[in-house]
Amino acid sequence: MTVNPRSPSESTTVLAHWMGIADANSNRDIHGGTIMKLVDEAAGVASVRHSRRRTVTASIDRMSFLVPIKIGQLVTFTATVNAAWRTSMEVGVRVEAEDPRSGEVLHASTAYLTFVALDDAGRPTAVPPIEPRTLDEQRRMQEAEIRRRHRLAEREAIEHGRKAFTLMAD
Ligand SMILES: CC(C)(COP(=O)(O)OP(=O)(O)OC[C@H]1O[C@@H](n2cnc3c(N)ncnc32)[C@H](O)[C@@H]1OP(=O)(O)O)[C@@H](O)C(=O)NCCC(=O)NCCS
Asked: Does the domain at residues 8-169 carry the CATH identifier 3.20.20.70?
């Protein structure tokens, strides 16, 4: 069955969370784990919107924390599918922290995650192709391809190295 391509913007999902005491450590900085959970949630919804399937997080490929997030900041998580392959998709998430009193907005974090779509039996299933429509969307797709190539090359190199160690141990 041919499935029509979807543009990245059709998957775009924005979550907002006002950070409170329960989200922070004793220094009033927000826990990295709190940010990661919300990143995973926003990215998960974007992957479902693209595939219209149940999805699972296969990997968190990269996550950078650029500035600490503080109690009282309003944090938004904007997630978009950057690239789609056979059954997997890369989702990029931009995290911005706003001080609601001053209006200052800081880019706090960027993350890239891979999600896999599942059929009703829980097996990986095909997702619609992605059709970037803007230059930014084209660039993000190209960068996602680079990250996937690196991820697969790293896995292959590690498997190759492990085989060599197994042979040495025999
Ligand atoms: C992710 C999962 C479905 C992949 O299953 P699998 O049997 O390895 O599936 P396949 O080998 O057929 O690979 C399916 C796709 O997943 C991708 N994939 C598998 N493992 C991956 C990993 N660690 N990182 C990124 N992508 C991965 C493959 O590249 C493939 O993509 P493609 O079809 O677009 O080329 C399975 O490992 C799983 O269920 N993991 C647990 C997920 C989970 O519990 N997440 C946390 C809660 S949501």
From this structure: no
